[in-house]
Write a structure and sequence with these properties.
By secondary structure, this protein is mostly helical. The chain contains 14 helices and eight strands. Helix content is about 65%, strand content about 5%. Helix 4 packs across helix 6, helix 6 crosses helix 11 and helix 10 packs antiparallel against helix 12. The termini are far apart. The relative contact order is 0.14.
């Protein structure tokens, strides 16, 4: 077999797609949440005229613009792999997934692109009403984009509404069944909520950083940290509930994935334990050094202590997903979810004691948890995608049968190129974002810089013209 560094072409193609998707996923996860956060900040400023909301809007707008751009670029390179590394999959499943991805471009991407410039550059060029509408449209566009992409992914997880043509292609029979497939509502709710939580903890982490640096009286810092902690306290328990519902749906439609998540190599007719720790040995079909709570898995998944649960001993070995990867990625995701819940509860206690901004240990914990949402969404994605193996379209098309007829050396060389280029280019982008976050939002915060140009809105004041040219009316405060 043709190999490159010990890996065949299929595994290398999977590694390349996994690497590029993991890089791409973190940017939409942040931009979805930031778009909504910016719309809320702009609305609060228009409602209250509180300067703190305006300075936060301008502060996070710069970060959103960079994040959005990197998400678009990484998404383009990722999509090309459908034709280069997965041409058989594209040929067979294209009649179903092609239109859905086109709808994402025609609706969400065009909506975002149409209003993004007004949102970023148009505050002083259009009226406040139109600018607010643009902010809302960008926020709605990011959510619609996620909706179409998650519909595609969910159909690959729980396919329905299609038939197999004589040439082997999957052809649509019922678009409603394809779009609203069994796992789609759960995956959409779980993923969107994860994006909002991810953004909340990034915002909270930045706020905690500046509070630890002595910015206790900065209204922008106080506002961003308070809003982030409210989001953590309210949304984290909702996310745990949605995750449980998603898990029950997965048990119904992809039982082998749940068996791998739980580490259940053996069936349990009288109640299955919830394993907290263990080392999966797929060759021996056992979970070594297992530490678990008796019958708790049956209680969670079947709502009864003695409910029977099947194990991987009921699944042929060539149908089993890689258990070790799924087992540990699931625990990383769940562990971070409960840590987020803990931060939310802690913040409520500090708020009740009126010490939300004078609680250094809470601030340290929030700072450490700042990037936790990014880790959680990647861990959740790995759980979902690796748990689907050995299929690319669950139960209908195997991954090994979906790749392009390429040599391992060709795929391996492109993988190395992707790794080097991604870390250089996106590493520079992330470094610049961190540089922007290092500075606290200040009075007279500049938005995205624009060159002086013609003003097309009546009644524009000289002060607004000064803001456009990058000059501040009020002096910045530390």
């Amino acid at each position: 077999m043709d190999t490159f560094l010990g890996f065949d072409a299929v595994m290398l193609a999977r590694m390349q797609f996994g690497f590029t998707v993991a890089f791409h996923f973190i940017f939409p996860a942040v931009s979805i949440g930031l778009a909504s956060f910016l719309a809320v900040l702009n609305g609060l400023f228009l409602w209250t005229k509180d300067e703190a909301y305006l300075r936060l809007f301008k502060y996070w707008l710069k970060i959103f613009a960079i994040t959005f751009a990197m998400g678009v670029v990484s998404g383009i390179t990722m999509s090309y792999q459908f034709g280069t590394n997965w041409s058989v999959f594209s040929d067979i499943a294209g009649p179903v997934i092609g239109p859905l991805m086109a709808y994402e471009v025609l609706t969400a991407f065009f909506l975002e692109a149409g209003f993004l410039g007004i949102m970023i550059f148009g505050r002083d060029k259009v009226g406040p009403g139109l600018h607010m509408f643009a902010c809302l449209m960008v926020a709605v566009g990011t959510a619609i984009s996620a909706t179409w992409i998650l519909s595609v992914n969910s159909w690959m997880q729980t396919p329905q509404g299609f038939a197999v043509a004589e040439n082997g292609q999957f052809v649509p029979e019922d678009w409603w069944a394809i779009i609203f497939n069994p796992s789609f509502p759960y995956r959409l709710a779980h993923t969107l909520t994860a994006a909002y939580l991810t953004t909340a903890f990034i915002v909270g982490g930045v706020g905690a950083w500046h509070l630890l640096r002595g910015q206790h009286e900065n209204p922008g810092v106080r506002t961003m940290f308070s809003m982030a902690m409210w989001m953590a306290a309210i949304v984290a328990p909702v996310q745990i509930f949605l995750g449980d519902a998603h898990g029950l749906n997965t048990l119904e439609h992809q039982p082998a994935k749940v068996m791998a998540m739980e580490g259940h190599f053996e069936s349990h007719p009288d109640g299955a334990p919830l394993y907290l720790f263990g080392i999966p040995d797929q060759e021996a079909q056992e979970l070594k050094y297992a530490v678990g709570i008796p019958k708790l898995s049956s209680l969670i998944l079947k709502h009864h202590l003695d409910a029977p649960l099947d194990g991987l001993d009921t699944i042929p070995r060539d149908e089993q997903p890689p258990v070790a990867v799924v087992f540990w990625s699931f625990r990383v995701m769940v562990g971070i979810g409960f840590a987020m819940l803990g931060i939310g509860i802690w913040s409520l206690w500090a708020r009740f004691r009126k010490r939300l901004f004078e609680a250094p240990w809470l601030h340290r914990a929030a700072l450490v948890m700042g990037p936790s949402g990014l880790v959680a969404v990647i861990a959740g994605w790995i759980t979902t995608e690796v748990g689907r193996q050995p299929y690319v379209v669950y139960g209908a098309l195997r991954t090994a049968e979906a790749h392009s007829p390429l040599g391992a050396s060709a795929v391996g060389a492109s993988l190395i190129a992707f790794v080097v280029i991604y870390f250089v280019i996106f590493g520079a982008g992330v470094a610049y974002i961190l540089k922007l976050m290092h500075h606290a939002p200040a009075l007279g915060e500049r938005g995205v810089r624009v060159e002086p140009g013609p003003i097309r809105t009546a009644g524009v004041t000289p002060q607004n013209q000064m803001r456009e040219s990058g000059h501040d009316i009020a002096p910045e405060t530390p």
